[in-house]
Structure formats: C-alpha cells, structure tokens
Write a structure and sequence with these properties.
heterodimer; A: 96 residues; 5-stranded antiparallel beta sheet; 26% helix; B: 935 residues; mainly alpha; 40 helices; 1% strand; elongated
C-alpha cells in the first residue's frame, strides 16, 4: 500500500514509466490503483524513432505488472516522509 | 333468413351438393357468344398471318405423341365421362331447354344466368362461395385476372386460358383447341342449323368435359385451400418471425457483447426488452410521421429550387446558362441526386439503430422550416420588389449555403450518433451486482483500520502540502468511524457537503466491510493453526492484495533461544531497542572487570559500531513516529482521564527517546561519544530537529553542551579538510552532503537554544569548546565550527546591544562580571585564532595548494562568505588593539578583493559584487568601507 500511497500524491505530475519491454513512456500521471495500474496522459515515448507506432498515442493505460521502473519527479517526493512511511509499514508488519 | 336483402342461400346445403357432385346444375359456365347476333366479330379480326413456320416450331409434321399430356388425366377421365353421361341423362332435357345462349334466353329458375351487370357481380354461385368459406378471396375471378400468379393448378396455365373459351377446361389438348379454333374460324355469322347442331353437340360434349373438369377442379380447390391454409400459416409464421426480428434487431445490428445472450434470457431482461420494443415501435411510428413531414418539406424545397432555377434561366437567357450554373447552387442532376440521397437516407433511417440514436428530428424539421420560410420570404420579396439579378444570386447562394450547412450538420450528427451507437453496444454489459462487487473489492482495498498506517505517506504528504499552501486543516480527508476504522479518500474532492446521503451510505457500507474484515481476521486467528497446516512457503491467496505475503510469518521477537536470535542475519528490533544483545557475555565480562578494577568513575567502552548506530537510530525513529502519532491523537485537556493517560504515555515515550539518544552517557565513555556516533549518519542528523519538539529546553541545553564538548569528534569536523580539495571525489561529495545536513539539521535545531542563552552560558560554552578542542583554529577552519562560533559571537553581540539600549534590564554588577568573563575567554580565543586568520578562508587554503582551476573563482567567493561573516562578528567583539591585529592580518586579503573588483579582474558583475559585499561585511564591522580604500 505504501507505493500506492506515494503514487497517489503524484497525480498530475510528470513521470516516466519504464516497461519490461524496454519502452519508456513519459507522461502526466492521471491515476493509479492498488495494482499499480497506471493511467498516463499526454504521453511521449522516449525513443520515438524506434517506436513510430506510439507517436499517435496520446494517452495510455499501463497494466501494473508490465512496469519495470517509474521515474518520479524528485521535487515532489518527500524522502524523509517516505522513510517514515517505510518504517511505519515495517512496524505494522512486525505487529501482525 | 334474408340478410340485408340478399337472397337467402343455404350455403351448407349448397356445399353439400357440390361435394356430392351435383354441382353441375347451377354451374357457373362461362358464356360463349360465337355465332350469335351479339357476337362482335373480334375473332375475325385476329391476325392469322405468320403461321408459316408453325409446324416447324411446334412439330406438327409427324404424329403427335401423348407425352405432352402433362396432367395425364384426359384418358383417365374418359370412363368417368361416360358414367357422367348416363348419370346426367335426366338433366339432359333441361339442358336442351336451356340452350347455350344464356345471354338471350333466361329461364325463370336459372339463377346462374346473369341478367344485368349487378347480377353478374352479385354472384351467388357455389364457386363464388367456395373460396370464401375458406377465408380466401374470390378465387375464380382472381385466377382469371392474374393467371400467371397461380402456380397450383395446371389448368389456368394452359394456353387455352388465353382463348375466349378459356374456362372451359384446360384438360383439352392442343389439337382439340386448334380444331375448335379452326371450326370457329370456319363458322360464318349466319351459321346453318347443322352447324349449330354440331356446335351444340360439341358444346354438350364440352359441357361434360367441363363437368369433369369442374369436379377435378373442386378436388383441386380443396387441395388448394389446404395449401392456402398452409400458406397462410406460413405467412403468419413469417410475420411472427418478422416481428421477432424487429424485436431482436437492436441486438442484431450491434455486435452482441459476449455476455449479452445469457443475460437476455433472464425474464427480467425480457420484460425490459418488451418495454423497449414497445417504446421503439412508438418512436418509430412518430419518427416515420416526422420523416414523412420532413420528406414532404424537402420535396417542396427541391421543387422550389427547381422552379427558382427555371425562373432564373428564363431571366438570364440561355446564353448565360452554362457558365452561370456552375458556381451557384446544385444543378438539376445534383438536386435529383440530393433527392435520391434523401430517399436513401430515409430508407436507412428506418433501421432502429439509427432511429434509436437519432437526435430528435424536430430540430432538423424546424431548421428546414425556417430555411423554407426564409426562402419563401426571399421569393416574395423578389416578386414584389423585382430585386436585381445579383441580389437574387446572392440570396440563392445564401440559401444553398445554408442548406448545405444544414446537411453537413446533419451528417456530423449522424456520424456522432453512429459512434454513440457503436460504443453503446457495451451498455448494460455489467449488472448492478457486478458493479457492486467490483466496488466492494476496490473499497475493501482502500479501507484499513488505521489510515495513518497504511496510507501514511499520502495522508501526511497531503497535510504538509496543505499546510504549506496555507489551507485549513479542517478539511480532513480521513474518514473515521465509530469503530475506529477509516477510509482514505486520497485526493478526491470534498463531497461530503454536496452529497451527504451518498457519503452516509458509503460510510455505512465501508463500516460493514471493515467490521467484516475484522471478524474474518479474528476467525483466521482462531483457526490459524488449521490454516497454517501446509502453509510453509505459500503466499496468501488473495490475489487482489497489493503485495503477496507469506502465509507463514514467524515472529522473531518471540524467539526465546538466544543462539537463534544471534544466528538471524538481519537486524532485529529486539537487538536495537534493548541493551545490545551482541556479545552480551563479553560485555558482561568487561563490565565486571572494569567495576572490579575500579580504574575510574567512568566505564570505558568501545565506540558504537555502525550497525549499532543504525539500529539505535531506527529504534529512535520508531519512537519518534510513535510520539508524533500520539501527538496527533492528543485528547482535549477537558477529558482529564484520557488526557492524563495520554500524557503519561507521551512522557514515557519521550523518556525512552532521551535514553535512546545516550546524551547522559558520561563524556569519557568512548571516543566518539555514543551521541556523536548517532549523529554521524545523515539520518541521525536529520533526527535531531524532530526530537527538539518533544525534548525540553533544559535537556536540549545538556544536549548542546555535549555537542560542543564533543565537537571535534564530529565526523563533519574531522573530515572537513577534504572539502578543500577541488577534485570531485565520492568522499568529498559525502562530506559535503553530511556538512549540509549538519548545518541544516543539527545547527538549525540548536539555533533557538543559542538564541536564548545567557552571556555566562555562552562564555562557558566557548570556554568548553576551546578547552575540549586541541586546536580551536582547526575547528574554526571547518564550516560547522565556523558557523557555531559565529552563532556564539553574534549571540553575545545581541546581548550586549540589549543591555546597552536597556531593552533587557540587568544588574550592573552581574552584567559587568559576565562581560569580564566573556572578554577573558574571548581574548584567549582571539590569541589562539590570530595566527590562522588568513587560513580561515577556504580560498586561501585552496590557493596554497599548487593546482587550482580558475573556474572555481566565484565558488571560492561564495564559500568565503561565512568566513567574512565570522570575521565581522569577531571584529564587533574585538577591542581596538585587536582591530589592529585583524586589519594587519587581513590587509592583503581585503586589498586583493577590492583590487580585483575595481580593476575588473572579474568574470562578471556578480563576482565583483560578491567580492565587494564580502569585504564590506568585514569592514563595516570595523567602521570602514571598501570605498575608503585608496589604491
């Protein structure tokens, strides 16, 4: 739930999603669900010359399971808070 | 019974008679009028030519076989005919009395002979009755009228039918017919008796033949009636099918979505469909009416256009016609095409799918009406005022443009409707319960008993963001229920005010979900032993959980075996929170030895290992989180019971924190001191500002004293020389980062404490710093040290100013003593520092090194700035003699900066200003300015 929680705060921010098929899509994060399915708007593929078929695509829905990495805008992530959240989660996990 | 004055006719009886073969009496025999006075002689007018090739065509040369006798019934009829002859012998006289010229001779009882036109129509013969009783139309007549349509009887199809004596029987052969025709041709108007006799004989023969034919025909008719009945049934079935098709059309036209069919079989759905069907039919009906109206209007409009065109043609004359026609509106052909298109559209618009999503056509009707009205007005105006040609043109063009526009609009609308229709085929794919199910899953994912635990990041981040933006915190986005469950709504808009009912319902639902989940958890706990059987290495089966968890989770805290605990490769919580378990035996031995030896009042220990530091820090962080969480849930002071309980818990946690910081561990315990060790990682440094909120100021003072006492043990002080290197190395970057963290976190957190220090405390702290550090100059050469010294000096300056302007009334005696003390310590400090004044500047230290890139010039000025600030603070505290020392020592540095600034030995304006500002910072403290320096 932590990552979901983080992504929730990143809506309407520019992110880059790297897929497992080596496609990198940059776009505005519109929504995320608990499976970390991602909806992007106004997208742009990193290597457009290699993926010309993506040039016409303006928005997309990415299944969470095909995502390798998501590059977050560092100015919109509170690292210390993230650390705290991690601590809380591990604490909760120990409690359980 | 006479009905409406009709002659009574016992139909049943008649039918009986007919079935018994007695129909010949009243037979409706066709009337032939050859050889009679009334014969109009049309037969003579027949063209008889062109028969030369008849034989060749019809094979008349050889003997004629019987293979053309399709019915094969003529021979079969022969015995029957003979029988009938004998049977009808008693009827014969009457027949004789009633000659074959019914048009002239009417016997009173002979009903079948028509007297007038009405009586012909008023046909009550059994044959006229027969078909009717089967629900059919008048059969014989229809047959006569449209012979080609009846495919059941071989008779009407025979070519005889086209002859005047057609109904006499199709059973005759071609030969007979030809003979008949030949005889007919031979007969003159005034035929002899012989001929007439022959004719009569022939006719008699024909009569019998016809009787046979009639019987046959009756049988056939019965057969045919059956067939008709079948046909009718088939027709009905067809109609039903059509209706069904009509019903199913909406589904057929759109591709049925995968789950459509099973759902449609449910009775509820059928009901809906029937309703829908009814609606559709009604709509269709209305639509058709509207379309007809529209069509009519359209036609009128087209007509009008045509007329207008014709008029204009007339007006303009034929010479202009061709060239004129091109630019202005459509040609006649175009109009026709338009018309066709319109028709086509109309046809197309019959499809329910289109009709369903057709935007109410009133709009277009209205539009067209408006256009027509405009057109009419234009025409009217033209007629009246005799407008010029050009104006007419313009008006017409305008009208055409409008029409085209309307067409375009309609086209667009149609496309849109089609799109909607295409998309809407998935409508109602999911039932409400399906949707509810999914919503439940989603909501149950969002619902947690503790939203701050599971959605901590988003909640706190949102709170921080809101506080940063100055929003009120009353906009709570965490819903809390009486049971303590909560749902995080994330970033959804505040909807509580708008839809309170919906929110309430949702709350209830969520509450139920939460309580259910809790009960399930409890049940799981009860049956955990059963559920754990065979669970080794398995993950939990709930696929919609975000992260798979192992079913079997062994809590290492409960482990009682110490060997097992130590064998655990990971950092365990127990190790961190309690006294260090690691090497417990060794520790105990050491402790006993030291206490036994009693070498001093301090137990010397090894400094904390990095791992110990990290685990301790994590434990501290957990404590801090707990404290912060507790603070959020602070009960109002009115509830004394709860508040006291809370206060106790809070104090307990703060106490644990204080213990964990190890500030009270004796100074000489280890080098570095455990507290300094805790500050070495950046997260340790960052922890401090979060603690200050909870730790009292007296404790903070203790903490700061410890920090000052152990200042040289700090990593940032020890490794500061690395910063003077200009090469970018990983170590340098790390030191830089740590230094920034220290300045930003640790110094920031002690800043408020320093700002409230008394003069004597500052004096004591400075003395402590000088005493504890072997070389105060070395401390001053580090950024943290310089910052700390600047803090002290500026605090003293603030105190002095407060005393001088009487803002802070003080006892003159104590103040004087404190000042004296301070001056003593300061003098000591100044003396120690003087030889190193120039090397305080990072730029100077860097210049001393052989290699330095010039590109770092501006950066050097910036990193020099704190030094200039420090020197300014120093100058403020210094006495005039010390000023002399300062100026002498720093003269070169000042001159160098001013010179380079004034002579333009700088890269840009920024650098010049920075240099001058730096110098002025120091000079102003001495009461000087850079402009006074004459070069």
């Amino acid at each position: 739930m932590l990552i979901f929680s983080v992504f929730k705060t990143l809506t309407d921010q520019q992110v880059t999603v790297e897929l497992k098929n080596d496609l990198s899509i940059t776009g505005v994060l519109k929504s995320v669900d608990q499976f970390l399915n991602i909806r992007l708007d106004n997208i742009k593929v990193l290597d457009e010359a290699r993926h010309p078929h993506m040039m016409a695509v303006k928005n997309c829905f990415i299944r969470g399971s095909v995502v390798r990495y998501v590059q977050l805008p560092s100015e919109h992530v509170d690292t210390q808070l993230l650390e705290d959240a991690t601590r809380r989660e591990s604490l909760a996990a120990v409690k359980r | 019974m006479s009905f409406f004055g009709f002659q009574e006719n016992d139909l049943e009886e008649e039918r009986q008679r007919i079935r018994n073969g007695g129909a010949h009496e009243n037979e409706d025999v066709a009337v032939y009028t050859w050889g009679e006075e009334s014969y109009d002689g049309l037969g003579d007018a027949l063209q008889e030519g062109g028969d030369d090739l008849n034989d060749e065509t019809f094979g008349g040369g050889g003997s004629v076989g019987k293979d053309f006798d399709f019915a094969g019934q003529t021979s079969l009829l022969e015995p029957e005919l003979a029988q009938q002859k004998s049977l009808s012998s008693e009827v014969q006289p009457r027949r004789d009395n009633a000659p074959v010229r019914p048009a002239e001779q009417h016997l009173p009882g002979d009903r079948r002979a028509p007297q007038s036109l009405e009586s012909i129509w008023d046909d009550r013969s059994p044959f006229s009755v027969l078909p009717r009783e089967n629900g059919g139309s008048r059969f014989a007549e229809r047959e006569r009228r449209e012979p080609s349509t009846s495919q059941f009887s071989p008779f009407p199809e025979s070519p005889v039918l086209h002859q005047p004596n057609a109904s006499q029987g199709g059973a005759r052969t071609l030969q007979e017919i030809e003979a008949e025709m030949r005889t007919a041709a031979l007969q003159s108007r005034g035929a002899s008796q012989r001929q007439q006799n022959a004719l009569r004989l022939q006719q008699e023969e024909e009569f019998f033949q016809e009787q046979a034919y009639q019987r046959q025909r009756l049988a056939f008719q019965r057969e045919r009636d059956q067939e008709r009945e079948l046909q009718l049934q088939a027709l009905q079935r067809l109609q039903q099918q059509q209706v069904m098709q009509l019903r199913e059309q909406p589904q057929h036209q759109r591709t049925p979505p995968p789950r459509m069919l099973p759902v449609s079989q449910s009775p509820r759905f059928l009901d809906q469909r029937q309703m829908l069907l009814l609606q559709q039919q009604e709509e269709q009906h209305q639509l058709r009416l509207q379309q007809e109206l529209q069509e009519q209007l359209h036609m009128e409009e087209l007509e009008r256009q045509l007329r207008a065109q014709q008029i204009s043609q007339l007006n303009q004359g034929p010479t202009h016609f061709n060239h004129r026609r091109q630019p202005s509106g459509p040609t006649i052909a175009e109009l026709q095409a338009l018309q066709q298109q319109h028709l086509h559209r109309r046809q197309r618009s019959q499809s329910p799918a289109y009709q369903d999503f057709n935007v109410p056509p009133q709009n277009s009707v209205q539009l067209q009406q408006r256009l027509l009205a405009e057109l009419a007005q234009v025409e009217y105006l033209r007629d009246f005022q005799g407008a010029t040609q050009a104006e007419q043109e313009a008006l017409r063009a305008e009208a055409m443009r409008k029409i085209v526009e309307a067409e375009k609009m309609e086209d667009k609308r149609r496309k849109k409707a089609a799109k909607i229709a295409h998309m809407s085929r998935y409508n109602d794919l999911m039932t409400q319960s399906d949707k509810d199910f999914i919503t439940r899953i989603q909501v149950s994912q969002l619902v947690t008993p503790d939203p701050y635990a599971d959605d901590f990041y988003a909640q706190v981040y949102g709170a921080i963001l809101r506080s940063r933006m100055g929003l009120q915190t009353q906009d709570e986005r965490v819903l809390k229920f009486g049971t303590g469950g909560g749902i995080s709504l994330g970033n959804t808009q505040k909807a509580a005010t708008r839809r309170p009912n919906a929110m309430q319902r949702m709350e209830q639902q969520v509450e139920r979900i939460v309580s259910n989940a809790r009960r399930r958890e409890e049940e799981k706990g009860l049956h955990s032993l059963h559920s754990l059987q065979g669970a080794l290495g398995k993950t939990s089966g709930r696929s919609y959980k975000a992260a798979p968890r192992q079913l079997l989770q062994v809590d290492d805290n409960t482990s009682t075996s110490p060997t097992l605990a130590h064998a655990h490769p990971h950092i365990s919580k127990g190790e961190a929170t309690g006294p260090s378990n690691e090497g417990a035996a060794k520790e105990a031995a050491k402790l006993s030895r030291e206490t036994l030896g009693n070498t001093g009042n301090v137990v010397r220990k090894d400094p904390l290992t990095r791992r110990q530091v990290l685990t301790t820090l994590e434990a501290l962080y957990d404590l801090v989180l707990k404290v912060e969480h507790l603070r959020r849930e602070q009960p109002p002071p009115e509830e004394e019971d709860a508040f006291q309980r809370w206060q106790r818990e809070y104090d307990d946690l703060v106490e644990q924190l204080w213990e964990g910081l190890k500030v009270m561990v004796p100074l000489e315990t280890s080098n570095p001191h455990p507290f300094v060790s805790l500050l070495s990682p950046s997260k340790g440094k960052k922890l401090l500002p979060r603690l200050t909120r909870h730790i009292g100021s007296s404790r903070m003072l203790t903490l700061m004293t410890l920090l000052v006492a152990c200042f040289t043990q700090l990593d940032v002080v020890k490794q500061a020389p690395l910063l003077d290197a200009l090469e970018e190395t990983a170590e340098r970057a790390e030191v830089e980062r740590q230094t920034q963290a220290f300045l930003g976190s640790v110094l920031q957190s002690i800043l408020p404490i320093v700002a409230n220090l008394e003069l004597h405390v500052v004096t004591a702290l400075l003395g402590l710093l000088i005493e504890r550090s072997q070389d105060i100059a070395e401390v001053a050469k580090t950024k943290p040290g310089l910052a700390l010294l600047t803090l002290f000096l500026s605090r003293v300056e603030v105190i002095k100013q407060a005393w001088n302007n009487g803002a802070e009334p003080v006892d003159v005696m104590t103040a004087g003593a404190a000042l004296e003390q301070w001056q003593a310590v300061f003098d000591q400090f100044f003396v120690l520092l003087t030889p190193h004044l120039l090397s305080l500047f990072p730029s100077s230290r860097i210049t001393l090194q052989a290699h330095h890139p010039t590109s770092a010039a501006l950066a050097i000025d910036i990193i020099d700035q704190p030094v200039w600030q420090f020197l300014a603070a120093l100058a403020l505290q210094a006495v005039p003699e010390q000023h002399q020392v300062l100026v002498t020592s720093l003269r070169d540095k000042v001159l160098e900066n001013v010179l380079s600034a004034n002579k333009g030995w700088v890269a840009d304006e920024d650098e010049r200003r920075t240099k001058l500002a730096n110098v002025n910072l120091f000079l102003h403290a001495l009461g000087l300015d850079s402009s006074q320096i004459a070069l």
